[in-house]
Amino acid sequence: MGVRAFGEPHLNLRAPFSAEPSEAALVDSLRSLLAQTQPFEVEVGGWRVFPGTVFLECHLSPELLALHDHVLTLPGAPPQPYDQKEYIPHLTLALGVLPWARDALNSELLQLTPPVSRFTVSALSLTREGGGEVREIHTFPLGKE
Predict the structure, then answer these.
(1) Mind listing the pLDDT tens digit for each residue in 68-107?
(2) Is 14 exposed, middle or buried (0-12, 13-18, 19+ CB in 10 A)?
(3) Cβ(82)–Cβ(24) below 8 Å
(4) 114 to each of 38, 44, 49, 88, 93, how far by Cα in Å?
(5) What number does CATH give the domain 10-141?
(6) pLDDT-derived band of residue 3, with 50, 70 and 90 as boundaries?
(7) CB within 8 A of 66, min separation 6: which ones?
(8) Got the DSSP string for 17-75?
(9) Selection from 113, 95, 97 nearest residue 44 by Cα
(10) Which helix (H) or strand (E) holds 106?
(11) How large a percentage of the chain has pLDDT more than 90?
(12) Which comes out higher in pLDDT, residue 126 or 21?
């Protein structure tokens, strides 16, 4: 299709947010929140598109909903408009799809079978977006206290 992705495929646990605490404070808070979290399976639905973004919608399992609600309790990082009832779990595959490519890409995607039907989440990462790049701040392996 001649399309390249920006960033690694990723599953957002909540909408992007601006946080008051420092990165170190966020890492400490998340470490505490995730201490008992075990690896979990996510079931993939189908292709979806936001403007400029290609993703696979994921089913909102009870485990994923509980984790979403859990990370919304981070101090200094209140829920955003696409959190809570508006949260759509999805595996982002490509960001920055240009408007001129959008229609052709969408038409081709709808004819394709998603490459996976489920996957296991074994680690979670705190990232920061800026300047067109996603930078990993810290990764938390799951099931390892």
Answers:
(1) 998 888 888 888 888 888 888 988 888 778 888 888 888 8
(2) buried
(3) no
(4) 26, 8, 13, 17, 11
(5) 3.90.1140.10
(6) low
(7) none
(8) ---SS-HHHHHHHHHHHHTTPPPEEEEEEEEEEETTEEEEEE---HHHHHHHHHHTT-T
(9) 113
(10) helix 99-110
(11) 24
(12) 126
Q: 62-71 and 23-34 helices cross at what angle (nearest 10)?
A: 140
Q: Specify the pLDDT at position 23.
A: 86
Above 80 in pLDDT, residue 129?
A: no
The structure tokens listed for 106 are: 């969408």
Exposed, middle or buried: residue 22 (CB in 10 Å: 0-12, 13-18, 19+)? Answer: exposed
d(CA 64, CA 42) in angstroms, rounded, equals 8
Average pLDDT over residues 115-119: 91
Query: What are the residue ranges spanned by the domains of the chain?
Result: 10-141
C-alpha 41 chain-centroid distance: 14
